Amino acid sequence: MAVSNSNAKQNIMQRLAAVSALAPTNQTSANAWQASSPEQALARFEQSLMAAHADVIILENSKQLSVCLPELQQQHQWQTALCGEDGEWSKAFSLALAEHLQLNHFLQPFEQLKTALFDSTDVTLTGCAAGIADTGTLVLKPSADEPRSLSLIAPCHVAVIKASQIVDNLSQLISEQHWHKGLPTNVVLISGPSKTADIQQTLAYGAHGPSQLIVIVISGE
């Protein structure tokens, strides 16, 4: 029996060695997309997100959040929201929304907030570490200030990003943030609302996370 297994393994290894596709090649990968200007990068970022069924709102400055967020609350009739305690935009979220809905902060361990997050939170709000123009991707680096679950569970996720945080492609992001010197502990890449086509190959939104993604871009900061 041992001899038979040994022969079978040898045969498999010989067949694998004979497959030319496994041999090294001199082919180079396709060039990454690059923008000719920040305006083109922003346009590509917006178009890619919208193509993935995300909503994109572009504001000139962060002061306009005080008008934009209450308008969104009224439009979508949000009653409860959750954001991080000390994220980049947490103070702006509180100033804009505290009078319009029940705004909670992620102060307790996830186990204590889990029921409220799954059952009674209409929208979560976060900032972003970066954006990738080529694919319309948000890059989040979760931390104690803005835990990972803020972007994964509630029906709607609102993310705020500065236009200056948008890079052309993933390679540029890795280079500029020096990932080659040490990978981030946790990164979430978001390219549109949660979607799946597992059931009868029919595309459905919200099966495994937010069914709506609203991206607010601050263009002048």
Q: SSE order in H/E notation? A: HHEHEHEHEEEEEHEEEE
Helix content: 25-40%
**Main sheet characteristics:** 6 strands, parallel
Spatial sequence of strands, sheet with the most strands:
1-12-7-4-2-3
- Summed over residues and divided by their number, the pLDDT gives a mean of 89
What characteristic shape results from the CA principal axes?
Answer: globular
Q: How large is the radius of gyration?
A: 22 Å
The assembly state of the depicted protein chains is: single chain
Number of strands: 12
Distance between the termini: 70 Å
Q: In what range is the share of β-strand residues?
A: 15-25%
Question: Count the helices. How many?
Answer: 6
Which class best fits the helix and strand makeup?
alpha/beta
- Unreliable stretches, pLDDT < 50, 5 or more residues? none
A few lines on this structure:
The chain has 221 residues and is α/β, with parallel strands linked by helices.
Describe the fold and architecture.
This protein has 221 residues and is of the alpha/beta class. Helices cover 30% and strands 21% of the residues. The protein has six helices and twelve strands. The strands form three sheets. Strands 1-12-7-4-2-3 form a six-stranded parallel sheet, sandwiched between helices. α3 crosses α4. The model has no long low-confidence stretch (mean pLDDT 89).
Set out the fold topology:
Blueprint lengths: L1 H16 L20 H14 L3 E5 L5 H12 L3 E4 L6 H8 L4 E4 L4 H10 L3 E4 L3 E3 L4 E4 L15 E7 L3 E2 L2 H7 L11 E3 L4 E2 L7 E2 L6 E7 L3
Parallel strand pairs: 1-12, 2-3, 2-4, 4-7, 5-8, 7-12
Antiparallel strand pairs: 5-6, 6-9, 10-11
Helix pairs in contact: 3-4
